[in-house]
Amino acid sequence: MMLENISLRGRSMHPLALSGWIFVLFASTLQFALGCFDEFTSDLGYSLEFWALCLLCVATLRLQRVAVTSMLFFFECCFFVFIGGRLLSYPLMTINGPGSPFDLEFMAEYVATDAIKNIAFFYLVIFISFLNLGYWTVSIRVRQRPSLPLNGKFASALLLMAAIPMLFQTFGRLKLAFSQGYQAQYLGQTSAYQAGSGFLEAIYFVLLGIAYVSPSKTVRKLVLMLLCLHGLAGIASGARGQFLTVMALLLWLYGRRRKIRLWTLMLIFTALGVCANLLLQFSARATQIEAASPLDVITGMLWDQGVSLGVFSWSLNVHGYPLLAYVQTIFPGTAWVAQLISGHAVDARDLSFAAALSATSDPDMFLKGNGLGWSVLGDLALFSGGMFPLFALFSVLIGWGLRALDDGSRVSALWMALAVAIGPRLFFLPRASLSTIIPFLFYFIFIYWLLQLISGARASSRQRA
């Protein structure tokens, strides 16, 4: 339904930008090969190389002469914070003498070996490089402009039907977090799988996206208000990432109508990060601020947010992930089918790589609701079987997906609806799994198809009348 309306065409990349990425791939491959012969790079070297990688992303954006408010740039900013935060802050930190950016201090007291650092950083460079090559070397053209079967009243009714139970669920999470602590929200990960546990939130965001492209300005304002509430609820419960990804989506939407300069956007991101850190002190996850200067606040926040690099490094040491986790990452309803076939409950830790990793790292803390999280890099590494060319291909496909959202949303209400619905999940992907994205696409397509049927039935009844 969506793929049949688009075509993919090759696009020339600026010679300087292309040369830069080719050099990066050549140099990183050489560095990785030398690492295989025990010639390793220091943590400071990795950090400075990552800074250069970030600057190349920005330079490519300017050479391609496009607006900075693209899906790619916002995704990369979230990636730089959630994956590369420790690499960015490492040379700037002045307090507490940070350890290696690749280490892990929570649940698993893990000190990354030089060999693991070498592999993890090579994966990181491959992902960013081929993400950019995939995005910049194609253009997506929508052949027709499908209109969504919604009027203002119908959109409002659907949105309220989803918003009311979602708001009750959010209030329940906040109450639990403030009464029993931040980790109490995740005690469900230790029990048997319950069907539909994440379905409500998925449906809610699908309807948010579809309602946003309705003809009614009032409905669009309601969607923006609900997105803001979702972000604020996240920071109140202690989830800074939820707040930052919602703000990124709102900035992307604003950038579709107004031009935002690069330095203005950087200042906004910095302000949002500091604001999130300050608001956290009034949340269910309040901690004492020990930083003595603005630089310490920023670097400390980046160090805390960049823990996913350590999680990814640690995940490369763990083997034997559950088979159901592979299937659940792609197909929704896998757990329900597994329970139906086996006749007994499926342990929630067998359904995701993140839960399996956390349970392996520290079973006792896992049972108390603690977790390490995950990263899209972990997904791609597992699904590629450790084969770097296949990992690169998967990275290109993600770049194509970002390009499709950017190009398609300019001319198609359907693609704009998808961008709004999936935006927060997409920007959080550096710290999450593809299981939050791929099954969601199934939900979106199914609900859109269902709304088409309802709209067709309503139109037929009116004609008969």
Task: Please describe what this structure looks like.
With 465 residues, the protein is mostly helical. The protein has a domain at 148-259 and 317-389 and 401-464. The protein is 66% helix and 2% strand. It is built from 20 helices and two strands. It has helices spanning 15-35, 43-63, 71-82, 85-89, 114-136, 152-180, 199-212, 217-237, 240-255, 262-279, 294-305, 308-315, 323-330, 334-342, 353-361, 363-367, 376-383, 388-411, 413-427, 438-464, and strands at residues 6-10, 138-142. The protein has a two-stranded antiparallel sheet. Helix 2 (43-63) runs parallel beside helix 5 and helix 7 packs antiparallel against helix 8. The protein starts with 5 loop residues before the first strand and ends with a helix. The mean pLDDT is 81.
